[in-house]
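# nightly structure sweep
# worker-07 picked up a monomer target from the shared queue
# config: single-sequence mode, recycle default, output format = C-alpha cells
# input follows
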Amino acid sequence: MQTQDIITSAQNPKIKALLQLQQKSSFRRQQQLFVVEGRRELMHCLSKGYKADTIFLCPEMLKAEKEYESLLSALPMCNTLSVSARVYERIAYRGGTEGVVATIRMKNHGLQTLPNDTLSPLYVVLESVEKPGNLGAILRSADAAGVDAVIVCDPLTDLYNPNLIRASLGGFFSVPTVVCSSQECISYFKQKGIRILTAQLQDSSLYYDTDMTKPTAIIMGTEATGLTPQWRKAADAHIRIPMLGILDSLNVSVSAAILMFEAVRQRQSL
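# output follows
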C-alpha cells in the first residue's frame, strides 16, 4: 500500500477534518464517519465488518517498533496518509496508541439489526444514558458476559463518541449495539416474548432470586433519575442489588456488570 508525503502541519485540511470528527458529534453525523485509534482497536473494528475511510500513520513511531511494513500489508485498500510525530501528538486522543488513527464509516444501528439466532437471548437496555464512558464500560462487560446485544433507548450521548469507543476496549465492535426509542424496544420485547427485568430500588426483588435463564432483557436507567414510568409499567419483574452501606446506588456500569454476570451464573448452572 502506498502512502503520500508526510503531513507536517496540523492546519492541513485533512487533519482539521479529523479533529472535527473527534470533537463534534454533529460533524460525525454529517460525514457519517467516526474515529478509531490504535492498532488493536483498528484491526478489531475492521474484523467486525466496519469499512475504513482514511488511515493516518506515523512512520516515525511505527518504524521504531519495526512493524510499519507488516501493518501496511494488513490494512485494507483505502486512503492512507503519513503524518509527522508532532501532528500525530495533536490527533492522538490518548497516549500509547502506536501511531495509527483511522476514520471509519458508520453502520446502521436500528432495531432491525438485532441478532435473532439465539434461543434464549440476553439483552442489556440502557435508557437515556448520558455518559459515554459508562456506556463504553458496559459494552466491555457485555462482551465478557456474552450478552447478545446492548440496546440504547432514547440516547443522550453519541454512540460514536471517542470516549465511548476508548472505554469499551473493542466491546463496541464485538457486541451488537442497537439504538431505538423505548416504546419501539418495549413493543419488540413483547412481540418476541422477551422477559423485561427493570433495575430499580422500589417495589423490587433481589436480583439473585429472579430467573434470568429465559429470554431476558435487563433494563438500566440513569443514575440521577432511574427508569421512566413506561419501563416500570412494562416490566415483568423489578430487581434490585442490595445496598448494605450508607450510599443507595452504584455506578450504572457496575450495576449492569453485576446483573449480567448473575444471568451468566444462572445459565451456566442449568
